[in-house]
């Protein structure tokens, strides 16, 4: 069986983490009214045509590159906080999804992925209340 090139690249990313420069921030939530999992990934400065998104039974994968667009390369850097280079994000799916109805849009630096929820009986959400005791000490 031949492996999909995207997942071969994913395997390479996990096997050799040195070339993956950063992991972008993401918000993940369940839209219960529309029976969808929605993911927002912060990718300002990335080329939308170069983003790669895939899903398997347990994970959502996002890969791409953000290129440094510094205007004056001869200038001295005073502060540099924005990460550039290859990025990779793997998000564990809390519920099964129907990947045939998945959609992704990239607008204003945010990648939005919508995944319709699949059959809920495979990975049920279990909510457990955890009791916590807070002790205060006098100094």
How would you characterize this protein structure?
- This protein is mainly beta and 139 residues long.
- It has one helix at residues 5-15; strands at 26-31, 36-42, 52-55, 59-66, 85-92, 103-107, 110-116.
- The protein has one domain: Sandwich (Immunoglobulin-like).
- The chain has 1 helix and 7 strands.
- The chain has a 4-stranded antiparallel beta sheet with strand order 1-2-7-6, with no helix packed on it. It has a 3-stranded antiparallel beta sheet with strand order 3-4-5, covered by helices on one side.
- Strand 6 (103-107) and strand 7 form a beta hairpin.
- The chain is globular, with a radius of gyration of 19 Å.
- It starts with a helix and ends in a 23-residue tail after the last strand.
- The relative contact order is 0.22.
CATH domain class: Mainly Beta
Whole-number tally of structural domains: 1
The averaged pLDDT comes out at: 80
Q: Helices and strands, in N-to-C order?
A: HEEEEEEE
Report the CATH topology name.
Answer: Immunoglobulin-like
Q: Report the sheet with the most strands, covering strand number, pairing sense and barrel closure.
A: 4 strands, antiparallel
Please tell me how large the radius of gyration is: 19 Å
β-strand amount:
25-35%
Low-pLDDT stretches: none
Provide keyphrases for this structure.
mainly beta; Immunoglobulin-like; four-stranded antiparallel sheet; three-stranded antiparallel sheet; 7 strands
In short:
Helix content is 8%, strand content 32%. The protein has 139 residues and is mostly beta strands. The mean pLDDT is 80.
């Amino acid at each position: 069986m031949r492996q999909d090139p995207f997942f071969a690249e994913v395997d390479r990313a996990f096997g050799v983490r040195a070339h993956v420069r950063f992991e972008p921030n993401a918000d993940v939530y369940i839209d219960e009214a529309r029976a969808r999992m929605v993911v927002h990934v912060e990718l300002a400065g990335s080329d939308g045509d170069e983003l790669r998104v895939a899903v398997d039974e347990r994970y959502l994968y996002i890969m791409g590159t953000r290129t440094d667009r510094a205007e004056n390369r001869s200038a001295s850097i005073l502060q540099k906080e924005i990460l550039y280079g290859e990025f990779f994000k793997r998000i564990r799916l809390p519920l099964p999804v129907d990947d045939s109805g998945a959609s992704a849009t990239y607008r204003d630096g945010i990648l939005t992925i919508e995944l319709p929820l699949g059959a809920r009986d495979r990975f049920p959400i279990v909510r457990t209340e955890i009791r916590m005791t807070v002790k205060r000490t006098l100094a």
